[in-house]
Design a protein that fits this description.
Layout: H1 8-20, H2 32-52, H3 59-81, H4 96-117, H5 121-131, H6 151-180, H7 187-201, H8 214-234, H9 238-256
Helix pairs in contact: 2-3, 2-6, 3-6, 4-9, 6-7, 6-8, 6-9, 7-8
Length: 264
């Protein structure tokens, strides 16, 4: 019985794919204790937010709760219980050249899909409703709340959401991803899949009107592994955050543009 020898072209293709998508490796030595702490804290936070985010909180209150749960609580767990630094969980600059390259590639690759869903009634109704809610900034003179999004309210909304997305990406593609990957049994790919599960579930809700559009939830199931892989390649969640925030902001602006009122 003979085995087929791969051709030179096949070997070259495999080598090129391996160079483009190399096997990621966990940061630091195997640490089952860190993986266990990450799993417990990540599970508790995810369960709490799945319950809390289904309730209709005022915009600023929603942000404060999520920033505390997604960023500050994991930071405390990393430093107090894991006895490590946040940089070991992706809070660093990482591979800048690779990261910025994939920010550009990721944004351009996803832009056509964003342009399409921006005209989907499900997306339009959901995001216009979110962006026409009363915001604290609209109570400041001379920009009173008019019931319509304005230049000021949209700019304020996107900046606050940028902070939210930063904390969101740190939690899933930083804290959970790098922490879970330290476990000797699940490894990197297991960590990528595990962080994707709550990431996807938190796009959905049992509360009426709280769940994001179905296509976005489906996209989260695909985007979770991709952003997780990018985090390991660049050793940081930062570039995944940029992609996530840029895509979300682009969708927001496309959806809200026809409804945008003057500043006054």
């Amino acid at each position: 019985m003979s085995t087929e020898t791969p051709s030179h072209d096949q070997i070259t293709i495999r080598q090129r794919l391996a160079a483009l998508f190399p096997q990621p490796a966990p940061d630091g030595p195997t640490d089952n204790r860190t993986a266990a702490i990450t799993f417990v804290v990540g599970g508790i936070v995810s369960a709490f937010l799945f319950y809390a985010n289904g309730r209709m909180y005022p915009f600023e209150e929603y942000q404060i709760v999520n920033v505390a749960a997604l960023f500050w609580l994991p930071i405390v767990a990393v430093m107090l219980f894991c006895k490590q630094t946040p940089s070991e969980f992706g809070l660093r600059a990482g591979d800048r050249k690779l990261g910025w390259m994939w920010v550009a590639i990721g944004y351009l690759a996803m832009l056509p899909a964003v342009l399409v869903v921006a005209h989907n009634p499900e997306f339009t109704q959901y995001y216009v409703r979110r962006m026409t809610q009363p915001l604290a900034v609209t109570n400041w003179a001379p920009f009173p709340y008019t019931g319509h999004p304005t230049v000021v309210s949209v700019a304020y909304y996107e900046i606050v959401m940028g902070v939210y997305f930063f904390c969101w990406e740190f939690f899933f593609r930083g804290f959970m991803l790098f922490g879970l990957a330290r476990g000797s049994k699940i490894g990197v790919w297991g960590a990528i899949i595990l962080q994707t599960i709550p990431f996807t579930l938190l796009h959905w809700s049992l509360a009426p009107g709280a769940a994001k559009p179905g296509l976005e939830t489906f996209g989260a199931a695909l985007g979770g592994p991709a952003l997780g892989y990018l985090a390991f390649r660049t050793r940081t969640f930062f570039y995944g955050f940029l992609i996530h925030w840029l895509m979300a902001s682009t969708l927001d602006l496309l959806v809200v543009w026809p409804h945008l009122a003057a500043i006054r």
